[in-house]
Amino acid sequence: MIDGVTLHEEKQITVPKGNIFHAIKSNSEGFCGFGEAYFSQIEQGAIKGWKRHNRYTLNIVVPVGAIRFVIYDDREGSQTYGQFEDIVISVNENYKRLTVAPGLWMAFQGMGEGISMLMDVIPEIHAEDEADRKDIKDISYTF
Questions:
Q1: Which domain holds residue 98?
Q2: CATH number of the domain where residue 33 is located
């Protein structure tokens, strides 16, 4: 794994009329405070990215569908400099919480049929100038 990227098991509780999916608790590893939680949808086959948060630690779960996350480390001096991490999180097969440290580039692709959705918990209220963005073609990776 890239330094600063971790996966965390989260509970799924099966109940007759619809399951319960845990996301994060205040005592969870990777929790850095609460500023806001938001949802992002992505269509099957679509790719969003690249984006690098400079202050925020991301805590992401996928409650609908399946999403492929690609993380790239271009941090000078990092033990994992120049490496990519490719992780698919699915509500059905690999339900986990993905924690991504600040300073790492991330893109994601819809893998589930129709629309997939992620939920991200960040430690501050979103500020537009907090992140850097690049076109998907600016970092060489084959999706």
A1: 5-136
A2: 2.60.120.10
pLDDT of 30-80, one tens digit each? 999 999 999 999 999 999 999 999 999 999 999 999 999 999 999 999 999
pLDDT digits (tens, 9 = 90+) for 96-106: 999 999 999 99
In a domain, 141, yes or no: no
Q: If we measure between CA atoms, which residue out of 137, 91, 102 comes closest to residue 3?
A: 102
Question: Is 10 exposed, middle or buried (CB count within 10 Å of its CB: 0-12, 13-18, 19+)?
Answer: middle
Give which of 22, 90, 28 is closest to 62, Cα–Cα.
90
d(CA 86, CA 19): 27
Token pair for residue 28?
Answer: 């969870």
Q: How many domains does the chain have?
A: 1
